[in-house]
Write a structure and sequence with these properties.
alpha/beta, 12 strands, six-stranded parallel beta sheet, 12 helices, single chain, six-stranded mixed beta sheet
């Protein structure tokens, strides 16, 4: 252990909320420390700005691929960060593959990961969520002996562990919030119908609206700011005073559409997003949204992958996690008149 780290051992232990003896064992590369505790100590070293001693740098247990969509939506880097932290805690080195327009396809990324002899792959919002995509690609991956886990988008044609938020409950939660504020003309801005999360959100939204005796108004669009802008414009033209969006990016587009029409948010139009990121508290107005339980879902995905990577049979089930409504400043009581 370096002199600077020795002198600051108490600070590192306090930051990691462990004893100095435990911190010392981690920094000296000694066994007998739980993976999660070791991760906390090393994170404390990083936070305090110290260089990790060589003895604390454990040898990689192998590579694990992580295939995600573009990085402009904050929810995807949020998932990637937690997954990478969890994998690192078990000694695995994550290899990130990002699908981008004009870039490598999911199949190309998988081919590159398999060539690197990854121990497993985690897919986030991939082709498994697209009901028009051929699920045989995942069967071929299983035949090659590569275990995998799929996040966001259950598909009963694929035999694998799935990790999903309860999209139906999320949409119903947003509707109930707006109904309690007196809104009756509520619209849904959601992604293309071919995606499983879109269909589930539509089902939850429609059910909640019909139970309230209100007419569901739905606009399918892209999961982008521009898509939210276009869908919100159409829903505003239909007289909606509240809009539920299938992503926070779409919600920001809906707010922009309202302002371009001279409508104050939330004075004339209430907007609810979906996903939640740390940035939402600082938007104007701060965005009311339904929060995906990112940390719980990411950790579950890693643990579901560790089982087949360790030789156990791969689970063929869907783990469903409950979302949480986070009320901020983009929703208010329905405007009078």
């Amino acid at each position: 252990m370096t002199t600077s780290l020795t002198a600051r051992l108490a600070d590192i232990a306090a930051q990691a909320e462990v004893s100095e003896a435990t911190a010392s064992r981690v920094l000296n590369g000694k066994p007998g420390v739980a993976a999660a505790t070791r991760q906390r100590v090393l994170a404390a070293v990083d936070v305090l700005g110290y260089e990790r001693p060589a003895r604390a740098r454990q040898r990689s247990a192998g590579l694990v691929g992580l295939v995600i969509p573009e990085l402009t939506n904050p929810i995807f880097p949020a998932f990637a960060q937690v997954i990478e932290q969890c994998l690192s805690g078990y000694g695995f080195t994550p290899v990130l593959g990002t699908r981008m327009l004009g870039g490598a396809t999911e199949d190309e990324l998988v081919g590159q990961l398999v060539e690197r002899d990854v121990s497993g792959i985690i897919f986030l919002s991939g082709l498994h969520a697209d009901l028009t995509a051929d699920p045989a690609r995942y069967a071929r991956l299983a035949e090659r002996g590569v275990p995998f886990v799929l996040i966001n988008g259950y598909n009963d044609r694929i035999q694998a562990p799935f990790v999903s938020p309860d999209d139906r409950a999320a949409a119903a939660m947003a509707v109930d919030h707006l109904l309690q504020l007196g809104h009756r003309r509520i619209g849904l801005a959601v992604g293309p119908e071919r995606f499983v999360p879109s269909r589930r959100k539509v089902a939850g939204f429609t059910s909640a609206m019909e139970q309230a005796g209100a007419e569901p108004r739905i606009q399918h669009t892209l999961f982008t700011v521009e898509g939210g802008h276009a869908a919100a414009g159409a829903l505003i033209d239909e007289g909606c005073t509240g809009i539920v969006c299938a992503s926070d990016m779409m919600a920001l587009g809906a707010i922009r559409a309202a302002r371009q029409r001279g409508l104050a948010v939330p004075g004339r139009l209430s907007v609810v997003g979906y996903d939640d990121s740390e940035l939402n508290a600082f938007t104007d107005p701060p965005l009311t949204t339904v929060r995906q339980p990112v940390r719980a879902m990411a950790n579950a995905a890693v643990h579901a992958l560790l089982e087949p990577m360790g030789g156990s049979p791969m689970a063929e089930t869907e783990f469903v996690f409950q979302p949480e409504l986070v009320v901020r400043g983009s929703t208010a009581h329905v405007p009078r008149g």
